[in-house]
Amino acid sequence: MITKVNLLHRPDRAKPWVVRWYGDPHPQTGKQKRYGKSFRYCHVAKDFFAEKQSALNKGEARDPIDVTLEQLIGDFEEARLSGLSYSSILGYQNTISQMLEYFGSKRKIRDMRQQHAEAFIASRIRCDGRIGELSTWAKARHLIHSRAIFTAAVAWAYIDSNPFRAAREDGSSPLHINPKSRQWHHLTAEEFMRLMSVVDGVHKRAAYWLMYGCGLRPGEVYNLLATNIDLKLRRVHIASRSGTEDIPPFTIKAESQSSSSKSRSVPIPQAAIPDLTLAMSQSFKSGGLVTITSDRFCIVQQHWQRCRLGKSWGGHAHRPWQNRDMVNNMLRDTKKFLALAGVELTEPFTLPTFRKSFAQNHADAGTPPRTLAKLLGHSNTRVTLQFYNRVTDANERAAGVAMDKIFAAKHPSAFAG
Questions:
Q1: What is the pTM of this model?
Q2: I need a labelling partner for 250 at 20 to 30 A (CA). Which of 4, 40, 275, 286 fits?
Q3: In this structure, how many other beta carbons lie within 10 angstroms of the beta carbon of residue 99?
Q4: In angstroms, rounded to a whole number, what is the distance separating the alpha carbons of residues 361 and 186?
């Protein structure tokens, strides 16, 4: 029986480094089936080669395991979903239920090919009863979840390649989705200062500074403790925390489970220091939370106690605690302040618009994408670059206007009327 694992170099291939090994002898013929896995980089192939040889030396199965979709999803839920937020888990569960319905729980994942993955993504439809096609954003979420599940399958050596990944040159594949970003109102610095001039209450002012001046998510802002803010160094530190008897837990929104999305430190603008200083001085009334009033903190504590006991709370059936449960009616109050300040909204506005405006301001100022991605807690620059695309669009429009002026100066009659 051949027991040795081989590492070969085939320079004519796109992935030139190949690791090969043989399965167990067939009980009747004695023949061993040959298996292989290709890699683009030598060091990655060597690592896999060492791991495979060590595993076979320990007596692990030489032939691939025929894992079903149901088994893969069970392993994925146990290993990868536990660290995600409740809303992220709901998103995965939606994709998983549709995947099981479409493929069947007993489908062997080794038999799934790219065409099967494309058909699944292309056939997604609305499940909420509303009329119309599923948005590209919703299809992109299904693709992200499906890709993550099968990426785990590759990492666990259940399969050799991910069927939900298409080659870059295959531009027509449904596995290449460019979700259309939803329109939002870019709140300029001048509009923000007009807003702040009418905002009453230091807790609201501190919250707006943290969202607009530091780029924090609303859930991060309303779970922020005074111990997370260093006024001397002008930094705010974001990190997940476990719940206590008095204060609910906080989980950073997990974006691809990268280290940058789990914790980060962001600079605080000097203009925000006075309001943050005052809010921090009053935080002892609300358990150390900076942007929550004492009255709201009492309500939060009541809800948290019922949640811990598994009871219904907040007007709905029992469910795990979410970051957004810390605050109520903040968007309503914000729109009231914007109207009072005379800020005319040209596009939809939500609380995350503060964070998006923070990112857009940095992109306009020329902050490098990698730096901005780190400040925002993005796992990579893919999401961050959308703000730079808006800068490009603005520059192109400005260039068009400039060209019109040039031709108007040379041929005024063409632009008359």
A1: 0.70
A2: 275
A3: 21
A4: 9
